[in-house]
């Protein structure tokens, strides 16, 4: 598969930072993590979810959080502590599209340069992961060591809580 499958912002960031990625095609109806893993026989431990979080402030504060698919995001303690705002919630579909130009099921931290990106530190313990390609028809396979090339990325302990 080629880079042309990706959202244009994602392709631009891959080239800009020289990220070593493999592009995988994906049936858009199977883009959500559980369906993707089941259909393509991929272990959830090798996939990540990128989630946009909104801090309830004026103006709202947006961050992208990335956790392994085997974890849930600790919004109430870890994320709110990181951004210094007590009330945080998951962005809805419209907010996610407005902030990233990406649909839920395809959101990826690759291509997001307008907000901080927080990776759960457990991700660094996995050699390669699959994450969204910026749309529902592609995924990226990347070495987790590549994430440090993103200038707005930070690894955070306790961002993900094992399910």
Task: Describe this structure as you would to a colleague.
- The protein is an alpha+beta fold and 163 residues long.
- The chain has one domain (3-144): YbaK protein, CATH 3.90.960.10.
- It has helices at 8-17, 33-40, 75-83, 93-100, and strands at 21-25, 48-55, 61-68, 71-73, 88-90, 117-120, 128-132, 138-143, 153-156, 160-162.
- The strands form 3 sheets. It has a 5-stranded mixed sheet with strand order 5-2-3-6-9. A 3-stranded antiparallel sheet has the order 1-8-7, with no helix packed on it.
- The relative contact order is 0.24.
- The model has no long low-confidence stretch (mean pLDDT 94).
Helix content: 10-25%
Query: Mean pLDDT, nearest integer?
Result: 94
Strands in their spatial order, largest beta sheet? 5-2-3-6-9
Query: In CATH, what is the homologous superfamily?
Result: YbaK/aminoacyl-tRNA synthetase-associated domain
Query: Shape from CA axes?
Result: globular
Do you know the CATH architecture? Alpha-Beta Complex
Instruction: Determine and state the CATH class.
Output: Alpha Beta
What is the fold-level CATH name, i.e. the topology? YbaK protein
Radius of gyration: 15 Å
């Amino acid at each position: 598969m080629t880079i042309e499958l990706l959202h244009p912002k994602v392709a631009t960031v891959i080239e800009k930072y020289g990220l070593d990625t493999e592009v995988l095609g994906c049936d858009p109806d199977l883009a959500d993590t559980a369906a993707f893993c089941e259909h393509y026989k991929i272990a959830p431990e090798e996939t990540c979810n990128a989630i946009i979080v909104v801090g309830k402030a004026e103006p709202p504060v947006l961050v992208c959080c990335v956790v392994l698919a085997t974890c849930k995001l600790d919004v109430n303690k870890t994320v709110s502590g990181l951004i210094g705002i007590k009330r945080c919630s998951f962005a809805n579909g419209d907010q996610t599209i407005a902030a990233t130009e990406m649909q839920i099921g395809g959101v990826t931290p690759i291509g997001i340069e307008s907000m901080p990106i927080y990776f759960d530190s457990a991700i660094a313990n996995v050699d390669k992961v699959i994450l969204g390609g910026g749309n529902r028809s592609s995924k990226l396979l990347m070495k987790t060591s590549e994430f440090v090339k993103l200038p707005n990325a930070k690894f955070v302990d306790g961002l993900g809580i094992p399910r």
